[in-house]
Amino acid sequence: MEPPKGFLATLWNFICFLPYFIGLLLLGTIKGIIFCSPICLIMTIGNSSVILGLLPYHCYFTYYSIVSTKLLGPFLKLAICIFLPVVLILWVVVGIVGSILGGILYGFLSPMFATFDAVGEGKTNVFIHCFYDGTWSTIKGSFTVVKDFKDVCVHSYYSFMEELRQKNGQYYEIRFLCLLPALIAAVLGFLVDFPMISLIALCKSPYMLVKGWHRLFHDLVGREGPFLETICVPFAGLAILLWPLAVIGAVLGSIVSSIFLGAYAAVIVYQESSFWYGLCYIVASLSIYDEYSTDVLDMPEGSCLPRPRYRRHRN
Q1: Which terminus of the chain has fewer Cβ atoms in its 10 Å neighbourhood, N or C?
Q2: Together in a domain, 96 and 39
Q3: Are residues 205 and 187 in the same domain?
Q4: 133-160 pLDDT, tens per residue?
C-alpha cells in the first residue's frame, strides 16, 4: 500500500479515511467493553487459582532447593531464607494484580485489534469479520494464557529449581567487609543520581514533546509509519492525543530509574571490592544516562559529562 503523493492528495485521503476509522474505532470499543469483563474474570480466576494452589509447593520446594544447593554459602542461604517470605508474598500480590490488569487490557484491546485487522488487505466478508473477529478468538486466547501461565509455574519453575540444586559452579557467599561500603555507595548514588538525572530528563522533555508530535503529524498526513497499517491506526491516533502523557511518563520513568541506577553503585563496590570504583560509577552513571537519552531522542551523540572507569577489567 503506497501512500499518496502530494499535500492535497494526502489531505483528501485523510479526510476520506476519517469516518471509516471512527466507525471501526467505535465498533472495536464496543466489542472491547463487552468482552473486557468476562476475559478479565477468566484470567483472574485461572491465574489466581494457579498461584494460590501452587503456593504451598512453591514455598516448600524453594526453601528445599536453596538449602540443598551447593552454589550458595551458609550465610547467604540464611539471608535468602529470612527474606524469602517477603518475595513469596509479593509474588502472590503481583501475580493476582497483574492478572487483573492483564485481563482488562487483553479483553479490551484484543477485540479492537481484531476489528481493524478484519479490514486488512486480502480479507473477504469484511462486514461479517468486523463483528465476529476478536470475539471467540479472544475467549480462547484467555484460556491459552492461563494454560501457559500454569506451565511456567509448574514445569519451568521445577526445571529452574532442579538446575539450582544440581548445578556445580561458582560459589557465592556474603562478604561482610564489603557490605558497609556498598551501603554507603548506594546512599551516595541515590543522593547524586536522583536530582541530576531528574534535571536532565526535565531539560530534554520539551525536545521529546516537539519531536514526537512533529513525527506523528508527518506520518498522519502522509499515511506513513504507524498510520500505514490499518490495524495500527487507532493507537497511532491516540498517540498524538496522549503524547504529552507519554512524555510525562518518560520523565517519571527516568526519575524512578535514577533510584536504581544510583543504588547500583553498591553492586559495583561489592563486585570490585573497591569503594573508589563505586564513586567512579556514580559519576559515570550520569554520563551513561545522558548518552542513552540522547541516543533515544536522536540528538547529537556524546555527553559533556565525565565518564571515569569503574571496572577493573571492563568498560
Answers
A1: N
A2: yes
A3: yes
A4: 888 999 999 999 999 999 999 999 999 9
